[in-house]
Amino acid sequence: MYITTLEGKRAEIEAMKANVEQMLDIIGEDKDREGLQRTPERVAKSLLQLVGGYDVDPIAVLNSAKFSERYSQPVIVKNIEFYSLCEHHILPFFGKVHIAYIPNGSIVGLSKIPRVVDILSHRLQVQERFTREICECIQDALQPLGVIVIVEAQHLCMQMRGIEKQGAVTVTSDYTGRFTDPTMRQEFINTIGF
To answer: How many CA atoms lie within 13 A of 39 on its CB side?
Structure first.
């Protein structure tokens, strides 16, 4: 995984610990009781890890494994699991990403596509932007004949609070180039079994 480690993040951890301690006080908890004594540090480290994607350039990751190849049919990577945090409530949303691109003289090492998903999901996100960023990243790095991205996700901000609707799945898509053709999009949708 390309997500940053917590090395060199001591100042950030300490600042966040103080904020978590204040939150515990505000909600009426005793931050000094046994079960909560280390919670502020755990929360700080957890959050810094969950948003570690800011420290990594996803285009550089793709460019690090780009190879010349004359293949010109869709390359599909489906069912890429992801976990992210919604920027509105800092609650998790998670699901699967399905991606295809049509090479235009260059292919990329297959592991780099899920790495891009990891990097972009480890930022505060909204699903719509997450979908677009994946598509744009692959388009910018590889200059393929087309890219398509479909994201399906469950949002805990809809399940745990507010409307409290269990099992609701949100689907977003973005596409470029040849995937603007409805026939090409349908072929991709059929291939991923969506």
So the answer is: 16
